[in-house]
Amino acid sequence: MTKPEIICGDITKLDVDVIVNAANSSLMGGGGVDGAIHRAAGPQLLAECMKIAAERRPGSPCQAGDAVITGAYQLPCTYIIHTVGPIWQGGGQGEAEILASCYRKSLLLAAKTGLTSIAFPNISTGIYGYPKDKAAAVAVESVRKTLDETPNIQLLLFVCFDEENYNLYEKELKN
Ligand code: APR
User: Count of domains in the chain?
Assistant: First the structure.
């Protein structure tokens, strides 16, 4: 089974099959990594997201815990999987299950699309306020469980944007 790896850096620069975006349910872009990905991918990404949103009306384009795949346009990667993490509300609103679902559904969608390399940001640990230590534990456990079901995934990167996350993931992967 593939062993997840950790790198520190900008996910928009990675030449993997797919990068995962920590989006919001509108898929219309935002700040953080969502903003960085939309800026780097260019306007065609928003156009595709608007098409998906129109097709899914009156429902929301992407529910929390779910995942949607699009092209990557001007990015070096080939696809983007947009997933919506939970907003941290203290831990009693099913946040851990929703966060685990983000990693699981993104990985299953990548495998179903025939992809072999995927990079994840630290979903929900920025604007959505999920405690980094708790999020790292959920992410590693969810990915480890799902990798058993996705044998074609050969490279899985956790892309950390700060040292705190990097150290937390290093500790979690040693467990
Ligand atoms: N590459 C990798 N990681 C990044 C990058 C980048 N270029 N930019 C930011 N990050 C990191 C942040 O430091 C954080 O660790 O991504 C992690 C996720 O933080 P956010 O991007 O704030 O995402 P999240 O906490 O899931 O909040 C989602 O923010 O941008 C909006 O539209 C988005 O409403 C949604 C919300």
Answer: 1
